[in-house]
Amino acid sequence: MTDRPAAHTDAQASGTGPLSPGTHGYRLAGVTQRYHVHGSGPVCVAHSGGPGIDWEYMRMPALEEHLTMVYVEPVGTAADSRLPSHPHGYTRERYSGFLDVLIGRLGVPEVHLLGHSHGAFVAAYHALRRPERLAGVVLYAGAPVTGPEHAAEAARMVEAFAARHAGHPGLPGVMAAFAAMSGMSTDEQTTAVARGVLPSYFADYWGDEERLAPFRDSVRATYVSGLDEDLVADVVDDRAELKGLTVPALVVAGRHDVICGMRWARELDELIPDSRLVVLENSGHMGHIEEPVRFADAVRRFVLETGPTPREEAL
Fold it and tell me: Which CATH superfamily is domain 8-147+228-306 in?
């Protein structure tokens, strides 16, 4: 899929326009694409991670106070949005093609695009190849590469996490979930692994378990293979291309992120011309949950300063 997906028609209506609050959906290339609108202000389109993690973990009420947040429900995460090749075929090119149509439907000249985790890889790809309607891009808990190099760094960080929490009764479950990751093949297994590893994705999950456990229990996931239709892995190496990124970029990272940590945030910031780097000192992979006010302030400032009609506000 190298161009926009085929023509589309509305599958459901919500409110009176494409940015009215609530759930919107339309048929596109034979599947349903949904998105969810909350808040008011400049438009920020948010793409969740995984791939295959349900979009709802991305809700950002602190940002919704200042921005119109458009949460994409990535294709493949609902029964009626699955590709004929499911669980394969969910490449960055495909996600970007669907994003291109969605952004075009919103009826505004430009939007900011925020991608978290795997969504940051999608956002970078989109900003490099389809920058025309982007005022800026937020790469949140992302990296410039996947593959063996990224996996080795993640393994090192997970080992350090295990050493810090040696003897904690919850640690064996986390490590078992990481061990089960390579054997996932069903939605149920993927959800169990996502919930199982989640304590390591926070700076101090067990120190704030009463608040964070309901969030962990609410996470849902769909099994997505990471392979294209020809069963070839969609491996990322954006290092060369990111040096030519023309869209204003904000890189956001948690100091204690074990999956897409500080090594990758620094590298993204060094590669991207004139990028901004914000480090959340008390966060892991979920800074919008761990430090919501600091996270929201950083994104809001970036959106207002790089938007099509910047305006001064007390920050």
Answer: Alpha/Beta hydrolase fold, catalytic domain (3.40.50.1820)
What is the pLDDT at residue 83?
A: 96
Residue ranges in the chain modelled with pLDDT below 70:
1-15, 308-315
Give residue 220's pLDDT.
96
Segment 86-91 long-range contacts (CB within 8 Å, at least 24 positions apart): 87/222, 87/223, 87/224, 87/225, 88/225, 88/227, 88/228, 88/229, 88/231, 89/227, 89/228, 89/229, 90/51, 90/52, 90/224, 90/225, 90/226, 90/234, 91/1, 91/228, 91/234
- Show the tokens assigned to 290: 């761990």
Say which residue the tokens 């900011």 belong to: 112
pLDDT for the residue numbered 251: 98
- Distance (Å, rounded) from C-alpha 56 to C-alpha 5? 25
246 in Cβ contact with 131 (< 8 Å): yes
Residue 130's Cβ-side half-sphere holds a number of Cα atoms within 13 Å equal to 25
pLDDT tens-place string over residues 91-135: 999 999 999 999 999 999 999 999 999 999 999 999 999 999 999
Model pLDDT, residue 16: 77
146: its two tokens: 């996947």
Alpha-carbon distance of 61 to 199, in angstroms, equals 22
State residue 62's pLDDT score. 96
The tokens for 114 are: 């925020």
> In angstroms, rounded to a whole number, what is the distance separating the alpha carbons of residues 51 and 115?
12
Tokens of 203: 């700076």
User: What are the extents of the domains in the chain?
Assistant: 8-147+228-306, 154-218
For residue 87, whether the previous peptide bond is cis, meaning omega lies within 30 degrees of 0, is yes
Q: Name which of 93, 127, 144, 122 is nearest 260 in CA terms.
A: 144
Q: DSSP 3-state assignment of 276?
A: strand
pTM above 0.90, yes or no: yes
